[in-house]
C-alpha cells in the first residue's frame, strides 16, 4: 500500500461561526446534474417567527412538527427527527422517509401498528410523508415501528430506505423484547411492503448511515461510537446484489476497513492524503452474539477505528463518509473538528478530502459535521451537531463555505446544547427543494429559493 498526497490545496473558506474547510474537493463538488454550481447566497436574514434563518430570496415551509397530529390520524408526530431521504412521486412531488431517533424516554413514540412493528417495546421508527407537486402534504403515516434510536440510514438504487439503529441494547433492556442494533428496509411507497425484520447479516452495532454503490449494490456503513474502541467503517457484500426490494435478506458478507499502520483515522491531518489499496477484513460475528463488533479480533494488523463516524453518501464513483470529531482526551490519537473521507472502490483508494478547522471564537468542540448530502447543483450540504447556534453549511466547488440555514428555535449553549442539531438534509427529485430536520422539537422543513441562479 502506497501513501501519497494528491491535490493538496491552500484554499480555505471561513464563515462567522468559526468553521474552516480546506481540501482537495474537485471530485466531491461536481454535483449530480447539469445545473450551475451552488454559490454563496449572502448573509442569513433573521426569521421573525424565530424558527429558521435563511438567505434572502429563500423561504421555508414547516411540513411536520413533533406532537402535532399526523395526517393519517395514527397519533402525534413522533419525537427526534433525524435521518431522511426524498424519493420521486408519480405525477410530481416527493415521498419523504424520516427517521425518529427515539430512546426509551421519548415524549412521542412511533405508534406500534400491526404488521410493521418489530418490537412493541421500541419507541423509534420511521414516518413517510407524501408531498404533491406543489409541496403540500397529502399523507403522513408510520412507515416502520418498534425499532430503537433510528439515527440515519440511506437510500438504495431500488428506491427503498435503509433505516439504522444507533444502539446495541439487548432484549430485556427497559421495555425491549428483542435485540436492537440492526438495519431495516422500508418501502416509502407501500406500507404493506415494509417487513419489520432486521437485516442481521449487515451487522449489529451502533449504526449511523449507509450508502449504496449503484453499480454493484455494495452497501457502505458507518458506526457512531464516541468511546473506545471507536467505530469502524464497513462494507456489506450482498449475495444477491442489485436484486431490488428484499434482496438484502438473502444475506452476504460484512467486512471492516483496515488501513495498514493506521489504527485511528484521526492520526491523518493533511487534506489530500491518499492511501492506495486499503484492505477489507471479514467480520466473523456480524450479529455480535458474543462480542460487540468493534471489540472483536481482526487478526494480525488489527483494524482501523475512528471516533464518531457519522454521515455517509454516494457520489459519482465513490462513497464519502464523515468523522464528526476526534478528541485526545477521549482516547483519539489526535484532535480534529471533523473530517470528510472518500473511498473509491475500483482502486481501493482512501482519501482525506476535507478537514474542519479548529475553532477561532464561538464554536464549541463537538459542533461538528454530521449528516451530509451532495447538492444536485454541485456542492456539499453539511448538518452541524453540537452546542450553541446550529447551522446547515454549504461548500461550493470553489471550496467556499457559506451558511445556508440557522436554527433559531433552540440555540442552546455549551452547557445546555438543547439538541438543536440539524439532520436529514436531502433534496427533492426535481432539485428545487431542500428538506432538512431539526432534531428537537422535531421539525421537518422544506426550503425553496433560487437554487439554480448562482
UniProtKB/TrEMBL annotation:
Entries under SUPFAM superfamilies matching the protein: Calcium-dependent phosphotriesterase
Membrane-spanning residues: none
Family matches, as Pfam families: PhoX
InterPro entries registered for this protein in UniProt: PhoX, TAT_signal
Entry superkingdom: Bacteria
This protein's name: PhoX family protein
Biological source species: Actinomadura meridiana
Amino acid at each position: 500500500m502506497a501513501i501519497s498526497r494528491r491535490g493538496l490545496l491552500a484554499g480555505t473558506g471561513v464563515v462567522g461561526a468559526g468553521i474552516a474547510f480546506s481540501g482537495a474537493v474537485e471530485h466531491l463538488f461536481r454535483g449530480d446534474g447539469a445545473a450551475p454550481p451552488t454559490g454563496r447566497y449572502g448573509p442569513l436574514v433573521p426569521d421573525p417567527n424565530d424558527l429558521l434563518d435563511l438567505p434572502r430570496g429563500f423561504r421555508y415551509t414547516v411540513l411536520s412538527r413533533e406532537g402535532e397530529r399526523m395526517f393519517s390520524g395514527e397519533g402525534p408526530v413522533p419525537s427526534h427527527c433525524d435521518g431522511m431521504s426524498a424519493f420521486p412521486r408519480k405525477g410530481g412531488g416527493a415521498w419523504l422517509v424520516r427517521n425518529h431517533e427515539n430512546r426509551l424516554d421519548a415524549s412521542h413514540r412511533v405508534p406500534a401498528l400491526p404488521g410493521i412493528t418489530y418490537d412493541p417495546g421500541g419507541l423509534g421508527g420511521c414516518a413517510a410523508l407524501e408531498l404533491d407537486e406543489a409541496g403540500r402534504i397529502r399523507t403522513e403515516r408510520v412507515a416502520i415501528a418498534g425499532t430503537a434510536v433510528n439515527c440515519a440510514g440511506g437510500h438504495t438504487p431500488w428506491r427503498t430506505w435503509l433505516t439504522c439503529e444507533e444502539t446495541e441494547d439487548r432484549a430485556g433492556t427497559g421495555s425491549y423484547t428483542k435485540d436492537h442494533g440492526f438495519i431495516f428496509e422500508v418501502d416509502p411507497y407501500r406500507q404493506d411492503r415494509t417487513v419489520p425484520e432486521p437485516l442481521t447479516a449487515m451487522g449489529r452495532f451502533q449504526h449511523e448511515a449507509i450508502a449504496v454503490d449503484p453499480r454493484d449494490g455494495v452497501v457502505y456503513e458507518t458506526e457512531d461510537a464516541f468511546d473506545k474502541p471507536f467505530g469502524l467503517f464497513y462494507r456489506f457484500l450482498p449475495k444477491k446484489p442489485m436484486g431490488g426490494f428484499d434482496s438484502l435478506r438473502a444475506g452476504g458478507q460484512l467486512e471492516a476497513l483496515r488501513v495498514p499502520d493506521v489504527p485511528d483515522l484521526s492520526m491523518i491531518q493533511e487534506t489530500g492524503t491518499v492511501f492506495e489499496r486499503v484492505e477489507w477484513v471479514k467480520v466473523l460475528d456480524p450479529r455480535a452474539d458474543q462480542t460487540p463488533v468493534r471489540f472483536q479480533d481482526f487478526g494480525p494488523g488489527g483494524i482501523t477505528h475512528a471516533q464518531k463516524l457519522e454521515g455517509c453518501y454516494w457520489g459519482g464513483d465513490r462513497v464519502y463518509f464523515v468523522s464528526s470529531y476526534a478528541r485526545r482526551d477521549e482516547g483519539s490519537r489526535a484532535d480534529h473538528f471533523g473530517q470528510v473521507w472518500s473511498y473509491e472502490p475500483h482502486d481501493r483508494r482512501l482519501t482525506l478530502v476535507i478537514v474542519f478547522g479548529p475553532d477561532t471564537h464561538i464554536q464549541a468542540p463537538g459542533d461538528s459535521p454530521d449528516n451530509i448530502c451532495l447538492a444536485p447543483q454541485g456542492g456539499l450540504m453539511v448538518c452541524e451537531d453540537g452546542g450553541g447556534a446550529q447551522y446547515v453549511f454549504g461548500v461550493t466547488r470553489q471550496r467556499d463555505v457559506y451558511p445556508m440555514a440557522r436554527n433559531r428555535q433552540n440555540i442552546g449553549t455549551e452547557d445546555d446544547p438543547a439538541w438543536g442539531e440539524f439532520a436529514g438534509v436531502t433534496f427533492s427529485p426535481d432539485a428545487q427543494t431542500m428538506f432538512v430536520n431539526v432534531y428537537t422539537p422535531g421539525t421537518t422543513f422544506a426550503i425553496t429559493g433560487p437554487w439554480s441562479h448562482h
